[in-house]
Amino acid sequence: MRQARLTLDPGFAVGDVDPRLFGSFVEHMGRCVYTGVFEPGHPTADEDGFRGDVLDLVRELGVTTVRYPGGNFVSGYRWEDGVGPRGERPSRFDLAWRQIESNEFGLNEFMRWSRKAGVTPMMAVNLGTRGVREAADLVEYCNFPGGTALSDLRAKHGHPEPHGISLWCLGNEMDGPWQMGHKTADEYGRLANETAKAMRIVDPGIELVACGSSNSGMSTFGAWEATVLEHTYENVDYVSLHAYYEERDGDLGSFLASSVDMDQFISAVVATCDHVGAKLRNRKRIRLSFDEWNVWYMSRFVGERNLAAERVPRLIEDNYHVADAVVVGSLLITLLRHADRVSVACQAQLANVIAPILTEPGGGSCRQTIFFPFADAARYARGRVLRVEPDSPRYETARFGDVPLLEAVATQDGDEVVLFAVNRSVEESLGLTANLRALPGLRVVEHVVLAEDDRSLTNTVAEPDRVRPRQVSGSSIEDGELTAELPALSWNMIRMSSV
Ligand code: AHR
């Protein structure tokens, strides 16, 4: 068995874990909202029509923050359509996904659902087909205490107390030609800055995310961020990143190394933010909001087609196998490794649409394989992130050159230290030793593994328990050294405590 080594030392920390790193995303797309989180008449639905089985799974998943209502959807959305008496809300043809939006579920439903799910909202405004006025109006409707037309309208709609939404996205993927109201970096930068100023006049306490590139492969990547930040630096707090990964052309080795791409993407955006800060003589540090990330088999997406005939179409309902879960685990590790600059991250999406939770209309629900690493990290990655520089055997990939077999990070919260690790080898277990001499008195509480002999296994609503994490024995600490075995192609969480 090949061996990897690392050292954990509380003297070398990256930064604090922002709980918002374990965010998710609910978009009006396919079945994420309708028959996902919202299904009046479902056997588990509550008085608001929210699926109880899904609410339970969301709490178990440990999601902290949920971005809403899009995505590409938001660039054609009129938020006013989704508030007020349901019977008076219009049905609209949504330009992004070409499906009919009934508006039965809107802003106030999302806020009620968020409270029940125990998550904080992250709201996006439409800067594609709308602008400054509508965005400021939305902040007034949501956050203004009362005594204005829109805050009083909110009260009339059953919410006298302000929603107090503190995190806002200034549009979505505005660099993408597919986006309704797509803009150049200068056009978007100016609009985002003016909108930010207006939104902050309504509520000075809000935090704002400017759109970065839709992915690092965009021809404008880098230049887009620089131009947008030159316009907005003073008035925004975050710049967004989006990335989706999939196995292409049977190249599993490169797919398993997807987090190398995410790592480089984050470093490049950090460098760009700091370049603009230096140029503007501004000492403020822009932080990163990785507000869409996941495995998505985009190459299987049939593309835009008119879905108006299907009431709730099944769109991009990827069914994830074990290798996908291992990649998701390595992406979570990478986000944690950049905790000094990445403060918010949203796995896209929450239910049915490239999601950890699958549902059947009128039927059951299940945890996809990717549910498990997310749930482990969201529950146990607490406190601060320790810097981990593994010395690992490497393997050759077509896309990224040679890559370490081991991807790892650790967190420390009081007496508890948790090591999160992925073994990318599809063939063999990897031995791990960790020098813990700077953390005396630790013992292993549990070593949880997600790995299967058949890496193509998936969970479905009909067979929800084919893939499950399990506890393994054999990991131990002696003379300040942890020894563990990480099975082939596995996600691992080793919890240690000194009490
Ligand atoms: O999450 C699905 C889509 O991916 C989102 O609507 C869009 O922002 C991204 O391109």
Automatic annotation (TrEMBL):
The keyword ATP-binding does not apply. Its EC number is 3.2.1.55. InterPro entries: Alpha-L-AF_C, ASD1_cat, GH, Glyco_hydro_b. It catalyses: Hydrolysis of terminal non-reducing alpha-L-arabinofuranoside residues in alpha-L-arabinosides. Belongs to the glycosyl hydrolase 51 family. PANTHER family: ALPHA-L-ARABINOFURANOSIDASE C (PTHR43576:SF3), ALPHA-L-ARABINOFURANOSIDASE C-RELATED (PTHR43576). This is non-reducing end alpha-L-arabinofuranosidase. It comes from Kutzneria buriramensis.
